[in-house]
Backbone:
C-alpha cells in the first residue's frame, strides 16, 4: 500500500465516520453480544439489525460507528510487515502516525532464518504490540494487519524486494504461515489480530504497476504463484488478502475473481481489501470500466469486501455502491454477503464480546518490552548470512583493535514499512562493546561548493535555507557526501548533522534527520562538467513524474538565494574536497588489527515502493572504499547491509569475509557483534539467487519463469551465490540418506552430524528433480527444510515427508494437477548447489495423454509460446491469448488421428488478420491458413475456420499469428 494523503476536510470525516459522538452503551441483551452463541447466529443477529445504509457504509476502509447499537468505528489496515509500522490518524486530519516499538529485521531477513518456529514467535510479538497500540487508541490502531507480503521474489530488481520472503513458493508459504499464525494467536475462536496477505497476485514490479499486465500461463499460475498465497490461507494462518494494483492476464487484480480461488482454500470466512486507490484505478489509469458504479459492482461480485480509497472519506464509495444497487448491477444479497465476510473477522477479534475476548486485556505496556528486545536480537542474529569466510577471518578476536568503517557503521536505517526505533544499537556500538579498542570513520568525503567567490552555506540548530553567502568554507559551508549508487548522493550538513532536503518545492534546507518520505527529497547528484565545475542536481523521486518538468538543477540568484531551474540556468560550482573519506578510512584501517567495513543501501533511496532498481551493483563509492581499505589492511571483513542480491563479484574475490544482513532493527549492532565475535554461529541462508555481475536478467515484466529460465528453479546459470547458500563457523557431515515408501509418498531421512569444534545450526534442505516429463521441469525444487541445532560431535536424524502429490505438475491438457510416472532425484544438502547426499525414487503416476484437439481446447493451455500475452476473455471471467504478427502458440503431442481436416478458432480482433497452422515448429509444414475478419473489438468474439490437409498421427501443432488478434480457443475436425 502506498502513502495516502490526508482527506480534504474534517467536515467530511464527521459526516462519513460519525466522529462527533462516542458510541452509546449497547444493550447487553442483544444476542450478537453473547459469546456463548454460535458465531453464525451472532452474525445473523447483528446483520439483521443493520439498516441498508449502514451496511453499504461498511464497505469503505473506515467503517463508521453505529451508535444506536453501541458499535464503534472499525478501520482496516495497520501496517505490520516486520513490526507494527504505521496507521492513519482520522482524528487529526488523516495524517500518518508511525509506531515506536519493536522493529524486527526486514521481511526477507525473517525468511533468511529458515526458522518458522522463530518467525511465529516474531508474529506473536507483532500481534501483541498491535493489541497494545489498539488498547491505547482503537480509532488509530486497527487490528486488521496488512501483512505479510507473500509476493514471490522472482526478479531481484523489484523495488519492494525487502518486503517479500523468497523466490521459492514453499519457503514463502512456510514463513508466511508462521508469521500469520503468530499474529493471530492460538485461540481457536478468536484472533489476537487479523493478518491480510499482500498483494494478490503476481505483483513483482513497480514500474507502471497500476497498468502493467502480469501474464501467467497456467503452469506458472498454479505451480508457482498460487501456492505462495494458498499455503497460509489453507492453514488458516491468514484472514484475507489485499488485491494488487496490476492486471493479471489482462484483468485488474482488483476485480479478479476471489470467490473461485482464495475462498475455496479454507472453510473460514475471509475479509478481503483492495490496495489503496485501487478502486479508482478501474475508471482512472486502467480505464477498465466507464463508470464507478460498474467498477464497484465488479469488485463486490469478484469478492472484494472493503474499498481502500479516497483516504478517510467513505462518501464516494457509498455513492458508487448505491448507484450500482439502483442500476441493478448489485443486489441486497450481494451487500449482505460482503458484510457477513467483514463481520466474520470483526467478531473473531472480540469486538462484540463484553470483555473484548481473550486478547482484550493486552495493554500498551507490552510494546518494546525486554522480552521483545531479546527476541529481536536473536532474530537479527539468526537472519544474518555468512557469504564468505576464508583464512579464519571470522570470528574476530576480542583482543584485536578494530577499525569500524563505512556509511552504515554509525547509523541504523528503517524503511517505508518500518516503525520508529525506540533506541539504536549501531554496528559501531555493538563492536565497541566487544573489541579491545576501536577507531571509526564513515569514509565519506567532506566537501564545500563555491561559486562567484561565495560558499554554499547552511543553518545551524534546526537548519535553515541554504544560501550562497559564505566567504570561507567553515562548518556551515561543509557537507558530508554519501554515495548510494547510480550517481545519487545525500548531503549531510556539518553545521548541524542534518541532511539537505528540498523545501517548499524549490529551495534547499538542512533539516532532515534521515532521507525519508514518499518522494525522498534528500537525493542529489553532483554532475562534473567538462570545464571542471560541478552542477548540483535535485534527484528526488518525483523528478521522474511527467508533471515535474526540467527544473531539477540548483541555481543561485544574485543575492545568493537558491531555487531550481534547468541545466542551462544551473549555477556552476567549484567542488572543494575538505577531507577525503577514503584517505581517512585507509588511515583507520592501517592503525587497526582488523577492519570491518559496513556498506549497503539506504532503504528510501535504493529501490522501494513505486521504484524498481535498474541494477544490482553496490554503489561505486562504497566499492572503492572497500577496495582501498582491503589494500591497506588484508584482514578486512565486509558487512553488507541491504535487502536484495548485490553483484559483489570483485569484492568476493578480494576480501576474506563477507557477512550479509538486512536492515535489522534496533538490535542490529548487538546481533552483528554476536556473529562477528562468535557468540552466535551464523546459520542464515539466502532465500534468493544472487546473480553474477553482467548476468542478463529477463524483462522485469516477463513473469514466465519457465520460458525465461528464471529463479533457481529454472536457471542453469552459475550464480554468485545460490539459493539456500550460507556458511557456518563449524562443519556438518551428512550420512545415510534414505527414501522409503510410506503410504502415499516417501519418508526421506538423513543423519546430520556437527563435525566441527563449535555448536551451530544447519539448515538441511531437501530438493527433488524429475528425470522425464512431457514438459520442462525445474532444475531442482525445494521440497522441505529444517533448521537443526547441534553441539560439537552431536548427530540428529532429520526426516521429511515427501507426498506423491507434492511432485505433481499442472497438466494443461486436462486443467488439473497430475503426477507423471518418472524417476526423481532426491537431493539433500546445505544449499541448492551444495548437495551432500542423493538417491532416487520411482514414482508411479499417470501418463499425460496425447492432446485431443478435436475437443475444444483453451488457447491459454498452450505448451510453449513466443511473445504470447495472456489477456482477459471477458471483463468478468476467462483467459485468452493475445498475439502479434509472427508470435506463436504450440500444442505438443496432439493426436490428429488419421488426419485433421479443419480448424475453428475463437477469435477477437479490431482488424483483419490471419493464423497459420503448422506442424513441428513455427516454420514447419503449413497445413492451412485461417482468415480472421475484424470482429468489432477485443471483447467481441467470433469464430474463424479453415480447411487443413496433410496432417495425421501425433504431432506438435503451432498457431502462428499474422497480424494482431486474440484467440480464446481452438478445435480441430478430423
Residues:
Amino acid at each position: 500500500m502506498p502513502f495516502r494523503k490526508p482527506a480534504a476536510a474534517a467536515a467530511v470525516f464527521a459526516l462519513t465516520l460519525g466522529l462527533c459522538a462516542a458510541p452509546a452503551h449497547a444493550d447487553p441483551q442483544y444476542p450478537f453480544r453473547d459469546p456463548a452463541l454460535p458465531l453464525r447466529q451472532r452474525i445473523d443477529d447483528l446483520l439483521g439489525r443493520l439498516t441498508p445504509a449502514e451496511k453499504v457504509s461498511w464497505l469503505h476502509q473506515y467503517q463508521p460507528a453505529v451508535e444506536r447499537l453501541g458499535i464503534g468505528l472499525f478501520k482496516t489496515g495497520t501496517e505490520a510487515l516486520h513490526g507494527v509500522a504505521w496507521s492513519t490518524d482520522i482524528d487529526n486530519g488523516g495524517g500518518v502516525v508511525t509506531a515506536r516499538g519493536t522493529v524486527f529485521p526486514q521481511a526477507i531477513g525473517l525468511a533468511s532464518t529458515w526458522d518458522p518456529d522463530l518467525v511465529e514467535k516474531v508474529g506473536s510479538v507483532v500481534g501483541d504490540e498491535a493489541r497494545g497500540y489498539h488498547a491505547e487508541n482503537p480509532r488509530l490502531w486497527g487490528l486488521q494487519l496488512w501483512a505479510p507480503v507473500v509476493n514471490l521474489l522472482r526478479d531481484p530488481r523489484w523495488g519492494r524486494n525487502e518486503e517479500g520472503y523468497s523466490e521459492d513458493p514453499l519457503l514463502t508459504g512456510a514463513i508466511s504461515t508462521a508469521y500469520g499464525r503468530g499474529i493471530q494467536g492460538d485461540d481457536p475462536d478468536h484472533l489476537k489480530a487479523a493478518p491480510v496477505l499482500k498483494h494478490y497476485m503476481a505483483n513483482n514490479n513497480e514500474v507502471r504497476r497500476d497498468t502493467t499486465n502480469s501474464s501467467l500461463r497456467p503452469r506458472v499460475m498454479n505451480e508457482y504463484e498460487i501456492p505462495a498465497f494458498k499455503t497460509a490461507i489453507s492453514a488458516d494462518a491468514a484472514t484475507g488478502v489485499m488485491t494488487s494494483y496490476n492486471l493479471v492476464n489482462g484483468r485488474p487484480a482488483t476485480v479478479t475473481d476471489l470467490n473461485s480461488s482464495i475462498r475455496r482454500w479454507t472453510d473460514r470466512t475471509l475479509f478481503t481489501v483492495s490496495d489503496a486507490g485501487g478502486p479508482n484505478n478501474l475508471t482512472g489509469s486502467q480505464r477498465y470500466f466507464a463508470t464507478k458504479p460498474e467498477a464497484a459492482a465488479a469488485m463486490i461480485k469478484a469478492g472484494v469486501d472493503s474499498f481502500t480509497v479516497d483516504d478517510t472519506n467513505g462518501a464516494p464509495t457509498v455513492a458508487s455502491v448505491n448507484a450500482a444497487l439502483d442500476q441493478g448491477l448489485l443486489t441486497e444479497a450481494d451487500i449482505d454477503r460482503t458484510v457477513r465476510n467483514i463481520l466474520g473477522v470483526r467478531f473473531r477479534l472480540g469486538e462484540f464480546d463484553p470483555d473484548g475476548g481473550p486478547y482484550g486485556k493486552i495493554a500498551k505496556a507490552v510494546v518494546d518490552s525486554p522480552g521483545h528486545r531479546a527476541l529481536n536480537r536473536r532474530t537479527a542474529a539468526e537472519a544474518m548470512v555468512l557469504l564468505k569466510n576464508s583464512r579464519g577471518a571470522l570470528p574476530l578476536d576480542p583482543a584485536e583493535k578494530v577499525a569500524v568503517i563505512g556509511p552504515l557503521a554509525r547509523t541504523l536505517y528503517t524503511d517505508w514499512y518500518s516503525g520508529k526505533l525506540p533506541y539504536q544499537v549501531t554496528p559501531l556500538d555493538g563492536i565497541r562493546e566487544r573489541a579491545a579498542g576501536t577507531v571509526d570513520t564513515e569514509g565519506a568525503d567532506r566537501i564545500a561548493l563555491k561559486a562567484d567567490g561565495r560558499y554554499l552555506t547552511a543553518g545551524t540548530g534546526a537548519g535553515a535555507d541554504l544560501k550562497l553567502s559564505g566567504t570561507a568554507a567553515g562548518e556551515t559551508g561543509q557537507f558530508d557526501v554519501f554515495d548510494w549508487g547510480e550517481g545519487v548522493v545525500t548531503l549531510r550538513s556539518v553545521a548541524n548533522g542534518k541532511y539537505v532536503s528540498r523545501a517548499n518545492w524549490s529551495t534547499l534546507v538542512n533539516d532532515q534527520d534521515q532521507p525519508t518520505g514518499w518522494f525522498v527529497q534528500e537525493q542529489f547528484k553532483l554532475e562534473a562538467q567538462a570545464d571542471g565545475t560541478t552542477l548540483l542536481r535535485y534527484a528526488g523521486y518525483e523528478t521522474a513524474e511527467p508533471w515535474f518538468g526540467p527544473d531539477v538543477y540548483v541555481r543561485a540568484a544574485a543575492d545568493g538565494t537558491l531555487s531550481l531551474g534547468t541545466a542551462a540556468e544551473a549555477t556552476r560550482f567549484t567542488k572543494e574536497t575538505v577531507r577525503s573519506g577514503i584517505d581517512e578510512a585507509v588511515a583507520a584501517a592501517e592503525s587497526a588489527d582488523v577492519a570491518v567495513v559496513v556498506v549497503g543501501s539506504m532503504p528510501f533511496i535504493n529501490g522501494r515502493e513505486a521504484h524498481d532498481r535498474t541494477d544490482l551493483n553496490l554503489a561505486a563509492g562504497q566499492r572503492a572504499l572497500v577496495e582501498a581499505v582491503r589494500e591497506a589492511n588484508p584482514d578486512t571483513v565486509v558487512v553488507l547491509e541491504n535487502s536484495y542480491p548485490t553483484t559483489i563479484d570483485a569484492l568476493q574475490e578480494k576480501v576474506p569475509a563477507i557477512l550479509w544482513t538486512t536492515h535489522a532493527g534496533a538490535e542490529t549492532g548487538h546481533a552483528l557483534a554476536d556473529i562477528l565475535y562468535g557468540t552466535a554461529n551464523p546459520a542464515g541462508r539466502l532465500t534468493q539467487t544472487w546473480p553474477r555481475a553482467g548476468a542478463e536478467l529477463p524483462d522485469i515484466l516477463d513473469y514466465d519463469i519457465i520460458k525465461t529460465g528464471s529463479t533457481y528453479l529454472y536457471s542453469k546459470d552459475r550464480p554468485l551465490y545460490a539459493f539456500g547458500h550460507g556458511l557456518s563457523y563449524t562443519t556438518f557431515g551428512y550420512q545415510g540418506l534414505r527414501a522409503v515408501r510410506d503410504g502415499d509418498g516417501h519418508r526421506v531421512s538423513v543423519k546430520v552430524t556437527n563435525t566441527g569444534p563449535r555448536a551451530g545450526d544447519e539448515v538441511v534442505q531437501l530438493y527433488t528433480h524429475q528425470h522425464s516429463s512431457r514438459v520442462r521441469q525445474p532444475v531442482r525444487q525445494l521440497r522441505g527444510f529444517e533448521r537443526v541445532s547441534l553441539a560439537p560431535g552431536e548427530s540428529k536424524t532429520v526426516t521429511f515427508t515427501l507426498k506423491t502429490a507434492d511432485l505433481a505438475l499442472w497438466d494443461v491438457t486436462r486443467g488439473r494437477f497430475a503426477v507423471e510416472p518418472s524417476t526423481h532425484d532426491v537431493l539433500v544438502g546445505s544449499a541448492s548447489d551444495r548437495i551432500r547426499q542423493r538417491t532416487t525414487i520411482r514414482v508411479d503416476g499417470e501418463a499425460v495423454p496425447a492432446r485431443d484437439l478435436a475437443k475444444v481446447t483453451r488457447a491459454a493451455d498452450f505448451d510453449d509460446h513466443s511473445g504470447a500475452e495472456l489477456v482477459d476473455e471477458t471483463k468478468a471471467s476467462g483467459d485468452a491469448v493475445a498475439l502479434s504478427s509472427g508470435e506463436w502458440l504450440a500444442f505438443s503431442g496432439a493426436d490428429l488421428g488419421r488426419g485433421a481436416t479443419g480448424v475453428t478458432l475463437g477469435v477477437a480482433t479490431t482488424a483483419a488478420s490471419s493464423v497459420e497452422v503448422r506442424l513441428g515448429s513455427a516454420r514447419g509444414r503449413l497445413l492451412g491458413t485461417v482468415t480472421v475478419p475484424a470482429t468489432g473489438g477485443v471483447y467481441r468474439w467470433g469464430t474463424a475456420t479453415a480447411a487443413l490437409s496433410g496432417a495425421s498421427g501425433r504431432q506438435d501443432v503451432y498457431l502462428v499469428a499474422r497480424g494482431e488478434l486474440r484467440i480464446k480457443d481452438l478445435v480441430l475436425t478430423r
About this structure: Confidence is low (pLDDT under 50) at residues 3-16, 18-26.
